[in-house]
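Thread: Newbie trying to understand structure tokens

Hi all, I'm a second-year student working on a class project, and my supervisor (Dr. K.) asked me to get a predicted structure for one chain before our next meeting. I've only ever worked with sequences, so writing a 3D structure as a token string is new to me. If someone could post the tokens and maybe explain what I'm looking at, I'd be very grateful. Here's the chain:
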Amino acid sequence: MSRMTKGKAAVLLIVEDDREMRSLLCDEFCGTGYQLREARDGDEAFLAVLQSVPDLILTDLRMPAGGDDYISRLRTVAPRCPIVVIRDILSGPHPVLRKLLDWITGKGHAMRRVTAVGLIP
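---
Reply by user tm_fold:
Sure, no problem. This is what the structure looks like when written as tokens:
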């Protein structure tokens, strides 16, 4: 399934300080039609958004330069970009994330390490 905006692949920015988790998230979205970009922390994400606003941001909050201030900074430079926040990592699939992934990708994916997500309007 192709994700397109204005004739180009939609851009998904994945922000996660844990390298393994970031890799897992990228693997989940690989082949979904998104152009994937990565950031290791809040500062790197902010700089990436300054360069080019993505179509969607999937981010951790508990990371260097993360937290509420980080979201506020993103909102100042990308007020219309949807931000999906991953809050905790545990074992076991989470039905909310599964539904979110189904909605984003249009097909059934099950993440096994993410337990809570929230969409920031």
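A couple of things are worth pointing out once you decode it. Residues 107-116 have pLDDT under 50 and may be disordered. The longest helix spans residues 19-29. Feel free to ask follow-ups in this thread.
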